[in-house]
Amino acid sequence: MATIEHFSTVHVEPGNQEFWSRIDVEHESRMMVFPHPAGLFNGDLVLCDFGSLSVAQVTTGPVRGQSWEVAPHDSESAFLHLVDAGTLELVQDDKRIHLDAGALTVLLGARPYSIAFGEGTCLLLVKLPLHRLTARIGDPVRWIGARTEARDTALLSGFLRTIIAQEAAVHEPAWDDAVSDVVLDLVALAFRRPAPPAAPRSTVGERWQRTVREFVDRHLPDPELGASMIAQRLGVTPRYVQMVFAGMDTTASAYIVDRRLELAAQLLADGSARVTDVAFRAGFADLSYFYRSFRKRYGISPKRYAAR
To answer: Which domains are seen in the chain, by residue range?
Structure first.
């Protein structure tokens, strides 16, 4: 069943964190939002849930410098940002996207980003399942940071305003599915133009490769190091981490083992530690696995390598 909730900061004390707790922005079906300055947001919110699809209308008051930090939330969702009035600026993966009235862009829910609102801005924010969006517009990754203009979004913005303007929840059968289907059809219409070319490997791909390589090197001694840990710490999905390593012609586990063996060889060459200590310092919790892997990589045992 569709649910509609209205919130306003008109009578809220500045910095009142309880207000944000009542809004329940960390609800399973919503995004995780942290206002800046901390706890302060001047404006109105209307939140609508239609099953797997959620719509929010965010209207800012006459206060400068308001922004949201959006935490990684859901690797299976995408967020559509449509500016109904005013302006805003989005930043994800060091890429800045400026949107004015009527402009639309899409971001992935698996990675953090920020929203800087202009004065008197009205944002229509739609969260929808990534697989359903993909079925309508193709790979949405190619649309990240791209923007469509007002002429392409008029029908979508009009429909979103209509469902948000309802005074009460709708209890008709299959209403949620019907709303979701219409929204997806209108999104597909807005993105009917040819998709922009994919970002070259020298930008996003190489930046993420450098990021994960540096992370691995800093955490080699940690026996928990793996794709899941990297994803959690960097705010992406394990699948995305594996895709980054695939771009390096390897896997997360193979790369980590190689780097640990290189560190172990360096420590053994220094001759300042026992083989057992070297294994643990390099992140190997299983000594027999360390010995087998080292011999396979260097052709001799760790002890003989240290004695050279």
So the answer is: 3-190 (2.60.120.10), 201-307 (1.10.10.60)
